Amino acid sequence: MTGIDGTARVRATTPAQDTPGTLRRIAAAAVCASALVGCSTGGAPDSASANVASETLSSVTPDAATAPSPSPSPTPAAVRCRAKADSLTTQQQAGQLFMIGVSTSGLDSATRKAIESGAIGSAVLLGQSDAGASQISAITSELGTIQPAGMPLLIAVDQEGGQVQRLKGQGFSNIPPAIKQGALAEGQLRTQAQTWGKELADIGIHYDLAPVADVVPKDKQGSNAPIGKLNRNFGNDVAGVGSSVVEFTQGMQDAGVATSLKHFPGLGEVTVNTDHGVAKDTDITVDDESLETFRKGIEAGADSVMISSAIFTRIDPDQEGVFSKKIVTDMLRGDLGFQGVAISDDLGAAVAVGEVKPGDRAVRFFAAGGDLLINADPKLMDEMLEATVAWAAKDPGNADRLAESAGRVLALKESAGILTCD
User: Fold this and answer.
1) What residues pair up with 157 in beta bridges, in sequence order?
2) DSSP string for 364-380
3) Is the pTM of this model over 0.70?
4) What DSSP string runs through 210-274?
5) If you average pLDDT over residues 296-314, what whole number do you get?
6) Residue 31 has pLDDT above 70, yes or no
């Protein structure tokens, strides 16, 4: 978010989506296997050699009737988790699409009721805490006892470093701001991020809403309220920021913690923090160079991309990014090919969307192609859920859109190691 402001979990071996790299490795393995039979290091084999090879092969090849059947290939996570989503009721599917705010001081009865009654699928810890790991572990343990729709809660936090480090005290490193992280020597940030990720995993947190992939121009470092002014950016150039985004993402992966690139398509140029007002970007275009940092993070395996609630006038001047199909579906899904979870910036307490009715915030985000909505205000939960269920009931296309997002969220949970979609 822009600043609303204990056993380590291991990711499932089946990824949430098949990547081109995975497919290339499978193809290469197949080629290497076939190359072991009937290949020579020199020219064509003589007839004697060919006969020996033929006799040897025939002597070890079992009859077709007795040959073991090949092991079936695993079904991709996206397919299995969509099937699991289809087995849920519309109400349960809708609940999986919300991440509700929970105070770092403890889970109050009203928030617990909202989670249980709405079958909410995820929670995010909000507010600064200096109490240390033991207190946070008690909260995550309590959240772990809640199993809406028979499925575990995905627990997230904003643990970037600097001024946006929610969890501090004994058991947590003092994480430097991103601007200092970006100055580390090659490889060091990945190592550090793995340490920070393990600290989260050890206390039952599955998902870090980081890293920030926004590129802040050097001359706007002090005027860029949500990012630059708080030193949340890794640097001021695309290449440097991209490299840091990759290392942070990979380090968290090494610790078994899911990640989110933010704030797509970029908050580096705005002067207003969307938590406190309406922000407009008049610079970023659909083919902007700064989008490369998000592309790098996606290629590195980022689990989700957070959509900004700023208005991007050169892309879609009529609505906030979180409500824009051009940004979520056309740019993120189409241009960048991202098939993971598109998560919103806060749509509960943020002033940027304060003029939009809570129910409409939810419906417009999902209609744009979004998957997981952050709601920092539990009092709005019922209204958002009811509007979402009613929207899905209006049209089969809406219902399919809802199930599609539920499948992606379940795949994210499986990737985080807390759920199996089989």
Assistant:
1) 125, 208
2) HHHHTT--BEEES-GGG
3) yes
4) --B-----GGGTTT-TTTGGGT-SS-SSHHHHHHHHHHHHHHHHHTT-EEEEEEET--TT-SS-T
5) 98
6) no
